[in-house]
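Exercise 7b. Backbone tokens:
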């Protein structure tokens, strides 16, 4: 006998039936979400990625009923029947709740083992188990939805950028190292024993080469690979929206990206992004918020008390900070009444310690203007008054102080600001604070390696008015680099590039590369720059991060279909894994015996 699959095509997906379908003969396919036996009738909830519809299998159709009695969760079945109204029995919790299908043909297409966890939202199974059975995990509506969103955003992205004359182009996966600041994943060459390809940390050089090749505007939704220690918001391979444009200023590029972000936020969340997006220099962000990606859903700026305190206090932690040419940074919380002594003794110091701070001093300003707390006794009344005036705080304020080397004091205070903002309910999930951070330093000094390293990457152009400082004072050179930040998360970054081979050579040499290094690593690129390079610039946005924000997901793993764990393993395929000796021999690789 012909099966339903052969004789009929699906009427529509299960979540899309409504009252207006009543009376229709329909064919449906899906997974058994649940079944109930009720007064002789067998009810089955039939699920697919759009939702589920209820099947009604009556005893007066004995074959249908007998088959219905055998089904179990996650079996795959086909059904044909009449769409009927549930009358007064409406289930208002689900979109298909007005209707059900009175089944007159039912077929089992696949049986299923009992799944190791229930296929439903908010399942109580540990994540390792879910990752091991990821194909079952992905059936759960809350995950399923994230991937429908992912697809929607991918399509929207292509449309937006192609409508702005971008070409969608591909770049190699087996390639040469691109310095983006992480370790490379290497692939051994069989044909050239002892030689390796690197998986791209980004297609940076290729997208610039596209500009040299006259492609004018390039986009790619591409995979990048970085071998670094993983954190909640990192994966060894991730997806980037990679863009490059010729003949643009950074302002023009920002405007284009702003249009894109506004469209995505509007279409996905119905949120109107205020344009133009606020811009802030790196220096300003560091001074005011202690980090280069401040969360501007609330203000509460930090205050640098170093100069006011210099030579005017005996408070030991402050004196120690002066001895190491450090900084005394303060988080003034205008109304600190919610914070308890326990927060001051435990929570804040613990949070600050995560950024290397040895402690957090504090002071409260009482109703009468008097100060209490760990620093109170060590400051004169005059100094207290000056500090309060400078910080613009008064009675009720709580002041948290970190005295350390500047990078630690800033990072710790930035963290305290977020912790306090969160406790004060200022991190609203429906607020969106977009920000461009601009004018990053070109270089930072690596104390361990005792050399300059590029803060963005070595292809970033210095600001034109800073070119002459490359020779005299590299540390003060600002770059034409920018990051796009949303709610304290770096969504992406880019820069206007160097398009002159001499400037590029100078930057490489400042980074400590010898002529030989430059030749062997970037020879092709430096040569290409000499054949008529248009001024160009670009940016890359982290697609996974953007999705995480838009989907309200807790982790990147919720928006990556087959993610790795924090130990960079895939629990489903069990990769990485050992390979045959023969494969290793072919690659000319000998493993050291343990
Ligand atoms: N290649 C950079 C990155 O992956 C982005 C860019 O400069 O366009 O972060």
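Sequence design result:
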């Amino acid at each position: 006998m012909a099966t339903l699959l052969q004789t009929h095509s699906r009427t529509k997906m299960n979540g899309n039936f409504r009252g207006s379908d009543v009376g229709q003969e329909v064919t449906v396919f899906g997974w058994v979400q649940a079944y109930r036996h009720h007064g002789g009738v067998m009810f089955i909830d039939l699920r697919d990625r759009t939702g589920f519809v209820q099947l009604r299998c009556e005893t007066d159709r004995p074959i249908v009923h007998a088959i219905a009695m055998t089904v179990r969760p996650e079996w795959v079945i086909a059904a044909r029947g009449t769409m009927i109204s549930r009358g007064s029995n409406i289930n208002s919790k689900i979109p298909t709740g007005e209707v059900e299908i009175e089944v007159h043909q039912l077929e089992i297409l696949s049986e299923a083992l009992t799944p190791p966890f229930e296929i439903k939202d908010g399942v109580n199974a540990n994540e390792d188990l879910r990752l091991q059975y990821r194909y079952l995990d992905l059936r759960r509506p809350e995950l399923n939805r994230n991937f429908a969103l992912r697809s929607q955003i991918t399509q929207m992205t292509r449309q937006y950028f192609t409508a702005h004359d971008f070409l969608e182009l591909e770049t190699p996966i087996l390639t040469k190292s691109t310095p983006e600041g992480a370790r490379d994943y290497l692939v051994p060459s069989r044909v050239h024993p002892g030689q390796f390809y690197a998986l791209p940390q980004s297609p940076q050089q290729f997208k610039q080469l596209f500009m040299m090749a006259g492609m004018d505007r390039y986009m790619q939704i591409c995979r990048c690979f970085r071998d670094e220690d993983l954190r909640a918001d990192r994966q060894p391979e991730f997806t980037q929206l990679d863009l490059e444009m010729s003949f643009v200023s950074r302002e023009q590029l920002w405007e284009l990206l702003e249009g894109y972000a506004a469209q995505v936020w509007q279409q996905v969340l119905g949120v109107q992004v205020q344009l133009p997006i606020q811009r802030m220099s790196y220096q300003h962000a560091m001074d005011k918020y202690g980090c280069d990606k401040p969360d501007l859903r609330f203000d509460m700026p930090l205050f640098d008390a170093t100069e006011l305190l210099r030579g005017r206090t005996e408070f030991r932690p402050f004196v120690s900070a002066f001895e190491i040419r450090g900084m005394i940074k303060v988080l003034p919380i205008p109304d600190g009444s919610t914070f308890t002594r326990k927060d001051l003794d435990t929570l804040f110091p613990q949070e600050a310690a995560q950024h290397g701070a040895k402690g957090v001093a504090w002071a409260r300003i009482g109703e009468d203007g008097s100060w209490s707390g760990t620093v109170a006794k060590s400051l004169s009344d005059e100094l207290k008054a000056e500090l309060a005036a400078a910080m613009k705080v008064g009675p009720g304020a709580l002041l948290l102080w970190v005295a350390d080397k500047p990078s630690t004091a800033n990072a710790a205070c930035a963290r305290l600001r977020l912790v306090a903002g969160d406790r004060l309910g200022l991190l609203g999930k429906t607020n969106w604070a977009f920000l461009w951070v601009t004018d990053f330093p070109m270089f930072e000094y690596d104390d361990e390696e005792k050399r300059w390293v590029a803060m963005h990457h070595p292809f970033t152009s210095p600001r034109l008015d800073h070119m002459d400082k490359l020779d005299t004072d590299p540390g003060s050179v600002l770059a034409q680099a920018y990051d796009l930040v949303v709610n304290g998360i770096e969504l992406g970054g880019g820069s206007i590039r160097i398009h002159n081979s001499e400037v590029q050579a100078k930057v490489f040499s400042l980074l400590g590369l010898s002529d030989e290094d430059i030749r062997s690593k970037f020879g092709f690129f430096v040569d290409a720059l000499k054949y008529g390079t248009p001024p160009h610039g670009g940016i890359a946005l982290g697609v996974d991060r953007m999705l995480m924000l838009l989907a309200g997901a807790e982790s990147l793993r919720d928006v990556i279909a087959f993610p790795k764990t924090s130990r960079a393993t895939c629990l489903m395929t069990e990769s990485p894994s050992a390979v045959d000796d023969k494969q290793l021999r072919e690659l000319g690789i000998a493993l050291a015996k343990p």
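Instructor comment: The chain has a mean pLDDT of 95. Residues 180, 202, 204, 493-495, 538-540 surround aspartic acid (CB under 6 Å).
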